[in-house]
What does this fold into?
Amino acid sequence: MCQTGSCKYKLEIQVSDGKSFGNFVLWDQDCYNLIGISDIDLTSKMIKDGEDNPNYFP
It folds into this structure.
């Protein structure tokens, strides 16, 4: 887990419109621009929400 505030991470997401789907990879700056949350804050939120698998942390 990053403690410096300068980590790089990616999110792999799947988007569906009900008929088909697409897979996307979003890097840290793209994620921050879309959801407005840093890697440290996202990790903290995931832990608070019960996620305990470190492989899922940014």
User: Anything to note?
Assistant: Residues 13-56 form one domain. The chain has one domain: 13-56. The two ends are 8 Å apart (CA to CA). The helical segments are 28-35, 39-48.
